[in-house]
Each structure stands twice: as C-alpha cells, then as structure tokens.
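seq:
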Amino acid sequence: MTQILRLKETDRVLEVGTGSGYQAAIAARLAAEVYSVEILESLADRSRRTLSTSGSSTWSSGRGTVITGGRRRRRSTPSS
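struct:
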C-alpha cells in the first residue's frame, strides 16, 4: 500500500482504521503529517503508545495524531 501512495515529505496522510499503528508508523517516516482514526478506544490507546516510542520525528514533534472516532448509531426505520 505504501508503494502505491508514493508519499512525499510534503504530504499529509489520513488513515482510517489505525489498528496496531503499523501503517501509520510507515507513513510517518515518509510524509509531513499523519492523522489516523480508530473507533476502538483500546486500539487507539495502544497505537498511541506504540507510535510515541517509534522514534519517528513526526510523532515526537506532534505532527502525527491518532484520533478516536465514535461509531455512528443506526437510525431506526419505521416498519412498513
């Protein structure tokens, strides 16, 4: 996936689904800013800890962020 993106030092990345943070860590080494969204709080917390110790200047300088996004509630539809 990273090869297909052909990231440059000036790019900003939005990743949806942080998971372990692996892809965000790779993107952080190539792009200027990385924003990653994860709906599961436990995964977001884990990836924040992992990324903050990854040694990437993007995360240590505050140009990388893991955001916890809420699940959208389904609207109930009236029965026919």
